């Protein structure tokens, strides 16, 4: 199923509540969309029974992943992975080839270099080339995913012409809340109507000239492109796939299970700034390095954005969060089309019009990992929000780091 932003593309989408209601009523989830929530790979996996805890509690597996504070147990994860493995075994032979196992790993969002793939195939490859699920599962458990290790994809359209907001087209591919779901970006030629895939990270400019036509400027105004990954009042953990070609947006997947923020829904639109990167080799405040990702942004306006929506925002300030020993800036901003944007000139104006907003942002990021056994986050500057001028400096520096990352890529593949 392909949808395009600009029309109401959500009217036929299955929500977590719809999935739960269907199973409580005794209807198979496949009756709603014909795809399994754990794999997104078609009807073969649909016939598999859900995990027992979902049956006992009369909820969907998606609800277990999204709303239960406890993580899935190993037996639960193994059952989900077994169903996904079977979905790739389209000929029902009971095994996969090493090349197909590589496809499974990449489908699950596991970033693997060429060396990683070669080592994996050498370890699991039998003489006859048959990889059973038990062999795959043993390898998977013995090689846990390290979320901090990333292989970036720098593929971009590399346009020399100015970027026009009118040209940007956003398509959705696959079913939401499955590993196959992607938000893809294209530039449409206004004369021919042809579309060319682009990277939201590399091709959408950071600085906005105006709300219709945008391109980088030597002295930018306070107008930046913001890419929404997680709409306000939702908790599914969508993110720009920095390791995939053209960097689409996808839901983070762990062991075949879609990831959700167990602490609760986001109270704002959460996303990132394009053409930025927090370098792991640069020392920031509090003596920590960057988190190896684009700069995060918190849009505090009244409108709920869509996953992947690109909007022009005004930067107001920044919170310096320290996550697992790495700097993870959270830039506070507001859409230029929001009714109160005109009244907010700096971070100090936010409490006047949105009382408690800044305290709620800081507290959410401080405690959101605790409910799953994690530790509370720490902050630079004793949790103080720095002003607009400081935030714009952070963004500009991250833009320069992104440029350096691109230069490194041109000298050799990362």
Describe the model:
The protein has 414 residues and is α+β, with helices and mostly antiparallel strands. The chain has helices at residues 16-24, 30-33, 52-57, 61-67, 74-88, 98-107, 114-124, 133-142, 350-353, 357-367, 388-411, and strands spanning 2-4, 163-164, 168-173, 182-188, 195-198, 213-214, 224-230, 238-240, 249-251, 253-254, 257-258, 269-272, 289-290, 296-299, 310-323, 326-335, 378-379. It has a 5-stranded mixed barrel. Strands 1-3-4-5 form a 4-stranded antiparallel β-sheet, with no helix packed on it. Strands 2-6 form a two-stranded antiparallel ribbon. The two termini are 33 Å apart.
Q: Layout of SSEs?
A:
Elements: E1 2-4, H1 16-24, H2 30-33, H3 52-57, H4 61-67, H5 74-88, H6 98-107, H7 114-124, H8 133-142, E2 163-164, E3 168-173, E4 182-188, E5 195-198, E6 213-214, E7 224-230, E8 238-240, E9 249-251, E10 253-254, E11 257-258, E12 269-272, E13 289-290, E14 296-299, E15 310-323, E16 326-335, H9 350-353, H10 357-367, E17 378-379, H11 388-411
Parallel strand pairs: 13-16, 14-16
Antiparallel strand pairs: 1-3, 2-6, 3-4, 4-5, 7-12, 7-15, 8-9, 10-11, 12-14, 15-16, 15-17
């Amino acid at each position: 199923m392909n949808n395009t932003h600009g029309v109401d593309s959500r009217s036929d989408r299955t929500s977590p509540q719809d999935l739960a209601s269907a199973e409580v009523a005794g209807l198979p989830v496949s009756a709603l969309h014909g795809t399994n929530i754990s794999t997104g790979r078609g009807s073969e996996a649909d016939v598999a029974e859900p995990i027992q805890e979902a049956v006992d509690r009369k909820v969907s597996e998606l609800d277990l992943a999204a709303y239960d504070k406890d993580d899935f147990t190993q037996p639960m994860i193994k059952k989900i992975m077994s169903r996904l493995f079977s979905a790739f075994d389209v000929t029902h032979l009971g095994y996969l080839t090493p090349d197909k196992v590589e496809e499974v790993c990449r489908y699950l969002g596991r970033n693997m270099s060429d060396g990683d793939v070669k080592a994996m195939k050498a370890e699991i490859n039998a003489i006859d080339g048959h990889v059973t699920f038990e062999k795959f599962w043993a390898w998977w458990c013995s090689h846990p995913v390290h979320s901090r290790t990333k292989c970036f994809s720098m593929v971009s359209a590399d346009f020399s012409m100015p970027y026009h907001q009118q040209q940007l087209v956003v398509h959705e591919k696959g079913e939401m809340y499955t590993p196959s779901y992607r938000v893809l970006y294209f530039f449409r030629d206004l004369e021919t109507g042809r579309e060319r895939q682009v990277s939201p990270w590399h091709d959408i400019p950071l600085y906005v000239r105006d709300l219709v036509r945008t391109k980088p400027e030597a002295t930018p105004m306070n107008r930046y492109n913001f890419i929404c990954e997680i709409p306000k009042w939702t908790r599914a953990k969508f993110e720009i796939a920095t390791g995939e070609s053209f960097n689409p947006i996808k839901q983070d997947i762990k062991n075949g299970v879609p990831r959700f923020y167990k602490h609760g829904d986001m109270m704002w639109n959460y996303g990132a700034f394009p053409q930025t990167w927090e370098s792991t080799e640069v020392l920031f405040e509090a003596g920590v390095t960057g988190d190896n990702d684009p700069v995060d942004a918190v849009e505090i306006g009244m409108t709920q954005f869509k996953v992947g929506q690109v909007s022009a925002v005004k930067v107001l300030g920044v919170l310096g969060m320290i996550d697992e020993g790495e700097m993870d800036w959270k830039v506070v901003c507001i859409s230029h089309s929001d009714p109160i944007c005109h009244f907010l000139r700096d971070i100090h104006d936010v409490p006047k019009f949105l009382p408690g907003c800044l305290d709620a942002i800081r507290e959410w990021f401080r405690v959101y990992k605790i409910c799953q056994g994690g530790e509370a986050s720490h902050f630079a500057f004793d949790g103080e929000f720095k002003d607009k001028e400081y935030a714009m400096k952070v963004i500009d520096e991250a833009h320069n780091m992104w440029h350096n990352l691109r230069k490194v890529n041109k000298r050799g593949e990362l």
